[in-house]
Amino acid sequence: MPSTQSAQPLNTDTERPLSEPSIAFIGAGNMASSIIGGLVESGHSPDAICAADPSPESLERLRRSLRRTAPVRTSTDNATAVSGADVVILAVKPQVMSQVLEGIAGPVAEAGALVISIAAGITIDSMRARLGDSTAIVRCMPNTPALLGCGASALFANARVDAAQRGHAETILGAVGIVEWVPTEAALDAITALSGSGPAYFFLFMEAMIEAGCELGLERETATAMARQTALGAARMAIEGDADLVELRRRVTSPGGTTQAAIESFESDGLRDTVKRAMQAAANRAVEMARDMG
Ligand SMILES: NC(=O)C1=CN([C@@H]2O[C@H](COP(=O)(O)OP(=O)(O)OC[C@H]3O[C@@H](n4cnc5c(N)ncnc54)[C@H](O)[C@@H]3O)[C@@H](O)[C@H]2O)C=CC1
Ligand SMILES: O=C(O)[C@@H]1CCC=N1
């Protein structure tokens, strides 16, 4: 039988590859749990991951979500988790970010860690002001489908981030979906409005379709099953199909048929403008949240 030993050199203290960064998650809620789950399933050593959260309930939910794999390390103290980490992932709500950064600035500087923030609307400048000018920072906007490994994350790095650290950021977020680097930090506000908040738009559209289906006389259970499967099928065709979105739509739309009647109704009701206004509102809110943080 061939040996299954890792080809990479190992850190003899921990038996994990030297190239594998140790990662501290600050906040162990929904997004952190998704990313940790993806990392562990893609082969990252659980003992190279520590999650800190003051809420024992959050830590317990994280442990339960990882019940099929070896447990990650946990702590109720952020500074303890950060100590010695190569990468620190900030996965707390924007409202507590200021207090969190002040508590970990010392250990982050000491470890020379890369900081990756997934918080909406928290700028690199505001983090740098609390962590120090020399801190390597990546701002990331992921989304909740990360939970199923089909997330979409956009990344922007400050000038302190080196090539190896960019690689770490890509590997970590790549464990739960696709990753795109954006050329400016401002582009992240647009990304937040598109893919960060986007899953909720599709859920809302599906809710509206289910309600309309019920009004047309369907049982709710039937309407729900058909709407869900239609969303899945459309998403898969958009990604895996052989044509662009306009062509895929054209193929459903028989001239003078039912789809044309519906599309004309959407267009005359201003669906495209409705979407533009909603996404503008989301992007504006991201900018406001950044201003509130200062
Ligand atoms: N939910 C979403 O769709 C997305 C969320 N985000 C961002 O991800 C971040 C986290 O969001 P969720 O995971 O949804 O929130 P969540 O509420 O599920 O998790 C936040 C966790 O932070 C913990 N926490 C509170 N104070 C803390 C402190 N001082 N130190 C350490 N942990 C603390 C809470 O106990 C909680 O477990 C937010 O900044 C949000 O803007 C980004 C993209 C999508
Ligand atoms: O609603 C929010 O503020 C966060 C950011 C993107 C998705 N959820």
UniProtKB/TrEMBL annotation:
* Keywords, comma-separated and alphabetical: Amino-acid biosynthesis, Cytoplasm, NADP, Oxidoreductase, Proline biosynthesis
Q: Name one GO cellular component term.
A: cytoplasm
Pyrroline-5-carboxylate reductase catalytic N-terminal domain location: 23-121
> Which positions are annotated as binding NADP(+)?
26-31, 91-94
**Which InterPro entries would you find in this protein's record?**
6-PGluconate_DH-like_C_sf, NAD(P)-bd_dom_sf, P5C_Rdtase_cat_N, P5CR-like_CS, P5CR_dimer, Pyrroline-COOH_reductase
Q: Which residues are listed for NADPH binding in this entry?
A: 78
Which locations, inside or outside the cell, does it occupy? Answer: Cytoplasm
- A biological process term (GO) from this entry: L-proline biosynthetic process
> Which enzyme type, at the first EC level?
oxidoreductase
State the SUPFAM superfamilies in the record.
Answer: 6-phosphogluconate dehydrogenase C-terminal domain-like, NAD(P)-binding Rossmann-fold domains
What does the record give as the reaction this protein catalyses?
L-proline + NAD(+) = (S)-1-pyrroline-5-carboxylate + NADH + 2 H(+); L-proline + NADP(+) = (S)-1-pyrroline-5-carboxylate + NADPH + 2 H(+)
Reported EC number(s) for this entry are: 1.5.1.2
GO MF assignments: pyrroline-5-carboxylate reductase activity
**Function description:** Catalyzes the reduction of 1-pyrroline-5-carboxylate (PCA) to L-proline.
UniProt similarity note: Belongs to the pyrroline-5-carboxylate reductase family.
Q: Which HAMAP family does the record cross-reference, listed alphabetically?
A: P5C_reductase (MF_01925)
Name it: Pyrroline-5-carboxylate reductase
Taxon lineage: Bacteria, Pseudomonadati, Pseudomonadota, Gammaproteobacteria, Cellvibrionales
